Structures are given as C-alpha cells and as structure tokens.
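INFO  loader      accepted 1 record
INFO  loader      residues=372
INFO  predictor   begin
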Amino acid sequence: MPNIGPMKELSTPRRRNLPWLTLAAVLCAISSPAWSQQAPSSPDTPNPAAPVITQQAAQQTPGSITGKVVDQTGVFIAGARVTLTREGQAAGQETLSDDKGTFSFTNIPPGPFQLNFFSEGLASQEFSATLHPGETLGTPLVMMVVATQVTQVRVELTPVELAQEQIRDQEKQRVFGIIPNFFVTYDRKAVPLNARQKFELAWKSSKDPFTFVAVGLVAGANDAGGRWRGYGPGVQGYAKRYGASYADVFTGTYIGGAVLPTLLKQDPRYFYKGTGSKRSRLLYALSSGFIAKGDNGHWQPNYSNIGGDLSAGALANLYYPSTSHHGASLVFSTALVRLGETTIAAIFQEFFVPRFTPNLPTRAPSADPPQF
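INFO  predictor   done
INFO  writer      dumping tokens
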C-alpha cells in the first residue's frame, strides 16, 4: 500500500492538461482554411477575367470613314457638305469635301451609320453602312447629279378677267331664249364689275334687238291709248312716241346701270337669292330697288337705281310734248313708274325667270343676301 499515494500525484496533472491540448488542436483545424484562402496566389496562376476585358476593349476600338464626291461628269466636288449620323443619335458630325472631293471622319465608334451629302444645285445623296471595330471604311464613289427642278405654274384669272368671264355668261342669259336678262347674276361668288364692264352691260342691253321690239310695243300701246297727244297721230306720232320710249329706256339703263354705279361704286345687277322661305325671297325681291350690293361686297342703299330713275324723269322734260305734264310731277311720276317696273321685274327674276332661262351658268344662290 505504500505506492498508492505517489501514483495519484503523477496522474492528476496529465488529466488537467488534456482540455487545453484539445482546444489548441480545434483552433488549428479551424484557422487552417482561413489562412489558405487569404494566401496570395502565385504569379503563375492564370486570371479568368483578363480575356473578357481585352475582348470588350477590342469591340470598342474606333475606326474611320473616307470617300470621294463627284458630279455626274466625274469632276470632283469641292465644298460638298457631308454629315455623319449614327444610330440612336439626333445630332451628328459634319465635314466638307476638299479640292479633290475627298472627305473623311476619324475616331468613329463602331456600329451602323449614315452619310448625307449636300451641294448647292445638286440632288442630295445618302449612304448607309456598318463600321466594324478598328476598320478604315472606304465608301463607294458618291455621284451627285443636277437636281430636278419642278416648276408649278398656276394660271389664275385676275379679278377683271374673271368678271369679264361672268359677263360673257350673263350675256347668254335670255328668258325663253330671246328676252335679254343681262343685269342678273346667279353666281354665288360674282366678282365686282369695273367701270368699263358696267358700261358694257348697259350698251349690250340697250342695243339688243329685243329691246327695240319691246320699245316698239310700248310705243304702239301709247299711240293706241292716246298717250302723249302732243306727238300727234299717225306714223309721225308713233315715231315720236317710239323715240320717247326708247329715250326712257336708254337714259334709265345708262344712268342707273352704268354712270351712277361707277361713281357710287355700286353693282347694278340683281343678285339672285334662290334660298330661304318664299316670304324672305319676296321681301328680298321687293327691296332690290332700294338696296344694292356695293363693289366692296357690302349691302347699302341703292342710290344708283333711285338716282337713275329720277334722272330719267328729269331728262324726259326735254323731249315729252309741252302739252303734257312737265316739271317735278313728270320727274317723280316717271321715277315711280320705273321703280315699280324694277320691283315687278325682280319678283319675276326671283321666282319665275330661272325656270325659263336655258343658258344659266349656275343656279347656285348668290352669296350673303340681306336677311329679312
């Protein structure tokens, strides 16, 4: 039993050191992978990212574009403006061709592009292609030809010429094909007449064969009714009555249809309305003797017609027989008769005459009639 004590003293320290040795071993095992990951790589170890970077750089290597510009005869064009635009870019680069027609663009990123060529007097040209990385691209010879000039000639009648055409149409207007109806327009856009054209209408109307026939019928009626007894009976009396009746027509037509319309800048024609209710058209026709269309296109009092009728009545004092009524009574009675005739004629123009006039240029209503 004496050896038991020492053996216990030797075994106790060994058991106390065992946990520390175990912990150290575990820490070494854990720390070893970390140390291996942090260790620098050997210079001989290949880098997989390097080829990718090199390839991307090669794909972005800029290139250049060159070419020549000539005309259709092969002569170099100096100073031609050449613009370069790339896909997705609104603005581009620009250069001018030199004395030998050469142009060039350098340091151009690869990709699709378009060239546009401009030179004064020549038709513009364009060229499209794709520039590859690092490429020096030479374009085909660019030929610019003389621009085709398209000249448009518009032949338009002047207002005077247009009015003359309308007058020619009006001079074809005859009721039943025989009765002149020159002082009426059915044109919606009738052009105002100048002075010469107003006198032309008055002359055409006063010298028309039917006018002479109508005057003869009026003179015959006056002769049969014993009017203007101072002219006497028989052929001589009829001739005087014929002359007086024609003088009434001539002076009324010229003064009321040409002289005063020229001085007062009014249109002597009747503007056919043709639309609206019968009442509005009737009122329009009744007012035509008192309302006229001015050369400015606006409606205004018809001073020309009223003044023409009064003037015709005043002149009648010069050739009516002295035994008849003279002075103011003759002036106003003649004017009232002519106003009545004008008003009745306007009603016929509005409702009946177009139906019996075969040569109307158009039956469209005139523009902007006065409203009633």
